[in-house]
Specification:
29% strand; alpha+beta; binds cytidine-5'-monophosphate; 33% helix; globular; single chain
Protein backbone atom coordinates (compact mmCIF):
# COMPACT_ATOMS: atom_id res chain seq x y z
CA UNK A 1 0.00 0.00 0.00
CA UNK A 2 1.42 3.41 -1.03
CA UNK A 3 2.18 5.68 1.90
CA UNK A 4 3.82 8.46 -0.13
CA UNK A 5 3.42 9.95 -3.58
CA UNK A 6 5.13 12.60 -5.75
CA UNK A 7 3.20 14.68 -8.32
CA UNK A 8 4.17 17.49 -10.61
CA UNK A 9 1.66 20.00 -11.88
CA UNK A 10 2.02 22.60 -14.66
CA UNK A 11 1.50 26.35 -15.01
CA UNK A 12 -0.97 27.75 -17.58
CA UNK A 13 -1.29 30.67 -19.94
CA UNK A 14 -4.45 32.01 -21.58
CA UNK A 15 -3.87 32.77 -25.28
CA UNK A 16 -7.48 34.02 -25.42
CA UNK A 17 -9.41 35.50 -22.50
CA UNK A 18 -12.69 37.25 -23.17
CA UNK A 19 -14.65 38.94 -20.40
CA UNK A 20 -18.31 38.93 -21.45
CA UNK A 21 -19.55 40.99 -18.51
CA UNK A 22 -20.19 41.08 -14.75
CA UNK A 23 -22.43 38.46 -13.12
CA UNK A 24 -24.92 38.90 -10.27
CA UNK A 25 -22.67 36.75 -8.02
CA UNK A 26 -19.80 39.25 -8.20
CA UNK A 27 -17.77 37.21 -10.70
CA UNK A 28 -17.39 37.87 -14.41
CA UNK A 29 -18.63 35.68 -17.21
CA UNK A 30 -15.64 34.47 -19.24
CA UNK A 31 -14.82 32.56 -22.41
CA UNK A 32 -11.17 31.69 -22.37
CA UNK A 33 -8.58 29.24 -23.66
CA UNK A 34 -6.31 27.50 -21.17
CA UNK A 35 -2.96 26.07 -22.24
CA UNK A 36 -0.72 24.07 -19.87
CA UNK A 37 2.99 24.95 -20.08
CA UNK A 38 6.09 23.01 -19.03
CA UNK A 39 6.83 24.88 -15.80
CA UNK A 40 5.99 22.70 -12.82
CA UNK A 41 5.43 22.78 -9.08
CA UNK A 42 6.15 19.50 -7.30
CA UNK A 43 4.13 18.09 -4.41
CA UNK A 44 5.10 15.19 -2.13
CA UNK A 45 2.29 13.57 -0.12
CA UNK A 46 2.81 11.33 2.91
CA UNK A 47 0.15 9.70 5.00
CA UNK A 48 -0.05 10.98 8.59
CA UNK A 49 -2.16 10.03 11.60
CA UNK A 50 -4.45 13.05 11.29
CA UNK A 51 -4.84 16.61 10.03
CA UNK A 52 -3.18 18.46 7.16
CA UNK A 53 0.40 19.74 7.46
CA UNK A 54 2.00 21.74 4.64
CA UNK A 55 5.70 22.45 4.31
CA UNK A 56 7.10 24.81 1.67
CA UNK A 57 10.91 24.61 1.62
CA UNK A 58 12.44 27.95 0.54
CA UNK A 59 8.95 29.48 0.65
CA UNK A 60 8.70 32.56 -1.58
CA UNK A 61 7.94 35.37 0.90
CA UNK A 62 4.18 36.00 0.54
CA UNK A 63 3.24 32.32 0.40
CA UNK A 64 2.01 31.12 3.78
CA UNK A 65 1.95 27.40 4.58
CA UNK A 66 -1.05 27.87 6.89
CA UNK A 67 -4.80 27.49 6.43
CA UNK A 68 -4.89 30.39 3.94
CA UNK A 69 -2.90 28.30 1.44
CA UNK A 70 -5.07 26.84 -1.31
CA UNK A 71 -3.28 23.45 -0.98
CA UNK A 72 -4.35 23.22 2.69
CA UNK A 73 -7.89 24.28 1.75
CA UNK A 74 -7.99 21.66 -1.00
CA UNK A 75 -6.68 18.89 1.29
CA UNK A 76 -9.14 19.75 4.08
CA UNK A 77 -12.03 19.89 1.60
CA UNK A 78 -11.01 16.50 0.18
CA UNK A 79 -10.72 14.86 3.60
CA UNK A 80 -14.08 16.31 4.65
CA UNK A 81 -16.02 15.35 1.52
CA UNK A 82 -14.32 12.26 0.09
CA UNK A 83 -11.65 10.86 2.39
CA UNK A 84 -13.63 10.77 5.64
CA UNK A 85 -11.77 8.61 8.18
CA UNK A 86 -8.86 8.07 5.77
CA UNK A 87 -6.38 9.71 8.17
CA UNK A 88 -4.21 12.79 7.69
CA UNK A 89 -1.56 13.99 5.26
CA UNK A 90 1.77 15.77 5.21
CA UNK A 91 2.40 17.71 2.00
CA UNK A 92 5.70 19.21 0.85
CA UNK A 93 5.31 21.82 -1.90
CA UNK A 94 8.27 22.77 -4.09
CA UNK A 95 7.30 26.07 -5.79
CA UNK A 96 8.72 26.79 -9.22
CA UNK A 97 5.72 28.64 -10.68
CA UNK A 98 5.90 32.34 -9.71
CA UNK A 99 3.22 33.59 -7.29
CA UNK A 100 0.44 36.09 -8.11
CA UNK A 101 1.62 35.87 -11.69
CA UNK A 102 -1.40 34.98 -13.85
CA UNK A 103 0.12 31.53 -14.39
CA UNK A 104 -2.38 29.64 -12.21
CA UNK A 105 0.26 28.29 -9.81
CA UNK A 106 -1.94 28.26 -6.70
CA UNK A 107 -4.84 26.73 -8.64
CA UNK A 108 -2.55 24.10 -10.13
CA UNK A 109 -1.27 23.15 -6.66
CA UNK A 110 -4.85 22.90 -5.36
CA UNK A 111 -5.87 20.59 -8.23
CA UNK A 112 -2.76 18.49 -7.57
CA UNK A 113 -3.72 18.25 -3.89
CA UNK A 114 -7.16 16.85 -4.84
CA UNK A 115 -5.67 14.39 -7.34
CA UNK A 116 -2.82 13.47 -4.98
CA UNK A 117 -5.06 12.70 -2.01
CA UNK A 118 -7.42 10.65 -4.19
CA UNK A 119 -4.41 8.59 -5.32
CA UNK A 120 -2.74 8.38 -1.89
CA UNK A 121 -5.89 7.13 -0.18
CA UNK A 122 -7.14 5.17 -3.22
CA UNK A 123 -10.58 6.76 -2.81
CA UNK A 124 -11.33 6.57 -6.56
CA UNK A 125 -13.48 9.71 -6.59
CA UNK A 126 -15.58 10.14 -9.74
CA UNK A 127 -14.06 12.78 -12.06
CA UNK A 128 -17.21 14.91 -11.67
CA UNK A 129 -16.80 14.91 -7.88
CA UNK A 130 -13.20 16.15 -8.06
CA UNK A 131 -14.23 18.79 -10.62
CA UNK A 132 -16.96 19.99 -8.29
CA UNK A 133 -14.53 20.33 -5.37
CA UNK A 134 -12.04 22.05 -7.69
CA UNK A 135 -14.61 24.66 -8.79
CA UNK A 136 -15.37 25.42 -5.12
CA UNK A 137 -11.67 26.16 -4.52
CA UNK A 138 -11.27 28.63 -7.41
CA UNK A 139 -12.32 29.38 -10.98
CA UNK A 140 -9.02 28.18 -12.51
CA UNK A 141 -8.68 24.96 -10.48
CA UNK A 142 -10.83 22.57 -12.63
CA UNK A 143 -8.68 23.18 -15.74
CA UNK A 144 -5.67 21.62 -14.02
CA UNK A 145 -7.53 18.33 -13.51
CA UNK A 146 -7.44 18.10 -17.34
CA UNK A 147 -4.25 19.93 -18.38
CA UNK A 148 -3.34 20.24 -22.08
CA UNK A 149 -5.53 22.70 -23.98
CA UNK A 150 -9.13 23.54 -23.14
CA UNK A 151 -11.98 26.02 -23.35
CA UNK A 152 -13.18 27.61 -20.12
CA UNK A 153 -16.67 29.06 -19.70
CA UNK A 154 -18.79 30.44 -16.86
CA UNK A 155 -16.35 31.78 -14.22
CA UNK A 156 -13.72 29.79 -16.10
CA UNK A 157 -14.54 26.61 -14.18
CA UNK A 158 -16.54 24.83 -16.92
CA UNK A 159 -13.91 23.10 -19.02
CA UNK A 160 -14.15 21.48 -22.42
CA UNK A 161 -10.86 19.76 -23.28
CA UNK A 162 -9.58 20.42 -26.81
CA UNK A 163 -7.54 17.91 -28.80
CA UNK A 164 -6.08 20.61 -31.05
CA UNK A 165 -3.19 21.69 -28.83
CA UNK A 166 0.38 21.41 -30.09
CA UNK A 167 3.87 21.88 -28.67
CA UNK A 168 4.63 25.54 -29.42
CA UNK A 169 7.47 27.46 -27.74
CA UNK A 170 7.14 30.58 -25.66
CA UNK A 171 8.83 32.85 -23.13
CA UNK A 172 7.27 33.87 -19.81
CA UNK A 173 8.33 37.16 -18.26
CA UNK A 174 7.08 38.07 -14.81
CA UNK A 175 7.92 41.48 -13.33
CA UNK A 176 9.11 41.57 -9.72
CA UNK A 177 5.70 42.90 -8.59
CA UNK A 178 2.59 40.71 -8.49
CA UNK A 179 -1.02 41.65 -9.29
CA UNK A 180 -4.14 40.75 -7.30
CA UNK A 181 -6.80 39.10 -9.45
CA UNK A 182 -9.77 40.83 -7.73
CA UNK A 183 -8.02 44.21 -8.14
CA UNK A 184 -7.62 43.60 -11.89
CA UNK A 185 -11.31 42.74 -12.28
CA UNK A 186 -12.37 45.68 -10.09
CA UNK A 187 -10.17 48.26 -11.86
CA UNK A 188 -12.93 49.26 -14.29
CA UNK A 189 -10.44 48.86 -17.17
CA UNK A 190 -11.36 45.36 -18.37
CA UNK A 191 -12.57 45.22 -21.96
CA UNK A 192 -15.87 43.39 -22.49
CA UNK A 193 -16.29 41.47 -25.77
CA UNK A 194 -18.79 39.06 -27.34
CA UNK A 195 -17.00 35.77 -26.85
CA UNK A 196 -16.39 34.59 -30.40
CA UNK A 197 -12.60 34.68 -30.29
CA UNK A 198 -12.07 31.31 -28.59
CA UNK A 199 -13.82 29.54 -31.50
CA UNK A 200 -11.64 31.42 -34.02
CA UNK A 201 -8.56 30.48 -32.03
CA UNK A 202 -9.52 26.80 -32.16
CA UNK A 203 -9.53 26.97 -35.97
CA UNK A 204 -6.07 28.53 -35.89
CA UNK A 205 -4.81 25.85 -33.48
CA UNK A 206 -5.90 23.18 -35.97
CA UNK A 207 -3.52 24.70 -38.54
CA UNK A 208 -0.59 24.46 -36.07
CA UNK A 209 0.68 27.76 -37.47
CA UNK A 210 2.40 29.77 -34.72
CA UNK A 211 2.39 33.00 -36.77
CA UNK A 212 -1.38 32.87 -37.28
CA UNK A 213 -1.76 32.01 -33.61
CA UNK A 214 0.21 35.13 -32.71
CA UNK A 215 -2.31 37.23 -34.66
CA UNK A 216 -5.20 35.78 -32.67
CA UNK A 217 -3.96 36.39 -29.12
CA UNK A 218 -6.45 38.38 -27.05
CA UNK A 219 -6.95 39.22 -23.37
CA UNK A 220 -9.76 41.51 -22.19
CA UNK A 221 -7.96 41.89 -18.84
CA UNK A 222 -4.77 43.18 -20.47
CA UNK A 223 -5.79 46.89 -20.38
CA UNK A 224 -6.56 46.49 -16.66
CA UNK A 225 -3.20 44.81 -15.92
CA UNK A 226 -1.38 47.49 -17.94
CA UNK A 227 -3.26 50.23 -16.09
CA UNK A 228 -2.36 48.82 -12.66
CA UNK A 229 1.20 47.88 -13.62
CA UNK A 230 2.51 49.80 -16.67
CA UNK A 231 5.62 47.58 -16.65
CA UNK A 232 3.46 44.86 -18.25
CA UNK A 233 3.04 47.08 -21.34
CA UNK A 234 6.82 47.67 -21.44
CA UNK A 235 7.49 43.93 -21.18
CA UNK A 236 5.09 43.24 -24.05
CA UNK A 237 6.94 45.81 -26.14
CA UNK A 238 10.27 44.31 -25.05
CA UNK A 239 9.21 40.79 -26.05
CA UNK A 240 8.06 41.96 -29.50
CA UNK A 241 11.30 43.93 -30.02
CA UNK A 242 13.30 40.85 -29.02
CA UNK A 243 11.57 38.92 -31.83
CA UNK A 244 8.49 37.34 -30.22
CA UNK A 245 5.83 36.65 -32.88
CA UNK A 246 3.12 37.92 -30.54
CA UNK A 247 2.92 38.76 -26.83
CA UNK A 248 0.12 39.01 -24.28
CA UNK A 249 -0.55 39.39 -20.57
CA UNK A 250 -1.45 35.95 -19.17
CA UNK A 251 -4.73 35.75 -17.23
CA UNK A 252 -4.99 38.64 -14.79
CA UNK A 253 -1.23 39.19 -15.08
CA UNK A 254 1.33 40.46 -14.55
CA UNK A 255 3.21 37.72 -16.46
CA UNK A 256 3.54 38.50 -20.16
CA UNK A 257 4.19 35.63 -22.55
CA UNK A 258 5.77 35.86 -25.98
CA UNK A 259 5.39 33.24 -28.74
CA UNK A 260 8.58 31.98 -30.38
CA UNK A 261 9.33 30.21 -33.65
CA UNK A 262 11.21 27.37 -31.90
CA UNK A 263 13.12 26.47 -28.71
CA UNK A 264 16.31 28.28 -29.81
CA UNK A 265 14.49 31.52 -30.51
CA UNK A 266 12.64 31.24 -27.18
CA UNK A 267 16.01 30.97 -25.38
CA UNK A 268 17.43 33.96 -27.30
CA UNK A 269 14.37 36.08 -26.46
CA UNK A 270 14.59 35.00 -22.81
CA UNK A 271 18.27 36.07 -22.66
CA UNK A 272 17.33 39.55 -23.95
CA UNK A 273 14.63 39.99 -21.29
CA UNK A 274 16.72 38.88 -18.28
CA UNK A 275 17.38 41.41 -15.49
CA UNK A 276 15.50 44.02 -13.46
CA UNK A 277 14.37 41.46 -10.87
CA UNK A 278 12.18 39.73 -13.47
CA UNK A 279 11.55 36.00 -13.67
CA UNK A 280 12.16 34.86 -17.26
CA UNK A 281 11.46 31.30 -18.43
CA UNK A 282 11.76 29.81 -21.92
CA UNK A 283 9.25 26.97 -22.05
CA UNK A 284 6.70 25.20 -24.24
CA UNK A 285 3.05 24.22 -24.38
CA UNK A 286 2.31 20.67 -23.20
CA UNK A 287 -0.59 18.30 -23.83
CA UNK A 288 -0.41 16.80 -20.33
CA UNK A 289 -1.56 17.93 -16.89
CA UNK A 290 -0.81 16.61 -13.39
CA UNK A 291 1.72 13.76 -13.54
CA UNK A 292 2.50 11.10 -10.96
CA UNK A 293 6.30 10.72 -10.82
O1 LIG B 1 -12.36 32.08 -8.45
P1 LIG B 1 -11.19 32.77 -7.83
O2 LIG B 1 -11.18 32.64 -6.33
O3 LIG B 1 -9.89 32.40 -8.43
O4 LIG B 1 -11.38 34.29 -8.15
C1 LIG B 1 -10.65 35.30 -7.52
C2 LIG B 1 -11.31 36.64 -7.75
O5 LIG B 1 -11.19 37.02 -9.12
C3 LIG B 1 -12.81 36.67 -7.48
O6 LIG B 1 -13.07 36.94 -6.13
C4 LIG B 1 -13.28 37.79 -8.38
O7 LIG B 1 -12.99 39.05 -7.80
C5 LIG B 1 -12.37 37.66 -9.58
N1 LIG B 1 -12.96 36.84 -10.67
C6 LIG B 1 -14.02 37.36 -11.40
N2 LIG B 1 -14.57 36.61 -12.41
C7 LIG B 1 -14.06 35.38 -12.71
C8 LIG B 1 -12.98 34.85 -11.98
C9 LIG B 1 -12.45 35.61 -10.96
O8 LIG B 1 -14.49 38.49 -11.16
N3 LIG B 1 -14.60 34.69 -13.70
Amino acid sequence: MTSSLVLRTPAKINPVLEVLGPRPDGYHELRLVFQAVALYDELVFEKAAEGVALEIPESPAPLAADDSNLVVKAARLFLREIGKGAGGVRIRLQKNIPLAAGLGGGSSDAAAALRGLDELFQTHAAPGTLLDLAARLGSDVPFFLYGGTGLGEGRGEKITPWEEGFEFHLVLVKPAAGLSTPAVYRSGKACYTRGDRAGDFRQVLRQKDIRRMAEHLFNGLEPAAQFLLPETAELKEGLLKAGALGALVSGSGPTVFGLAEDADQARRIADRLEGGGRTVVATKAVSSGIQIL
